[in-house]
Fold this protein.
Amino acid sequence: MDRTFAKTCAFVLALGAAAPVAAMDAISDRSDFMNTIDGRDLRIGMFGLSLVVTDDGRIEGKALGRSITGQWSWQNGFFCRDIMWGEREIPYNCQLVEAADDRMRFTTDRGAGNSASFNLR
């Protein structure tokens, strides 16, 4: 198996991998979300993943040497986003957002799916 392909598979799985359940507070308001994330990056070190989510609805970053771009909006208490990772589209999804200390967790399918946990830096 080609090394880049293996890294790609690992990265895509991490975006939807189940994270250990930890005590976190749900964020259901856009302004609370922005107050928590403003001026900070979302990171997963193992993948060299670093994202910036801006107040004007943009998502920008990098993972495994490829750029990440996208748009987001806040809808009915959920973070909804479209993302491109290099040439690969990560399908539109609305996600439950939870935070504690310097950690933030996004759970797909409005909280019913898989989770990804990020460090806030």
Notes: The domain at 3-120 is CATH 2.40.128 (Lipocalin). Residues 3-16 form the longest helix (14 residues). The beta strands are 25-27, 42-44, 49-53, 58-63, 66-75, 78-85, 88-100, 103-107, 115-120.
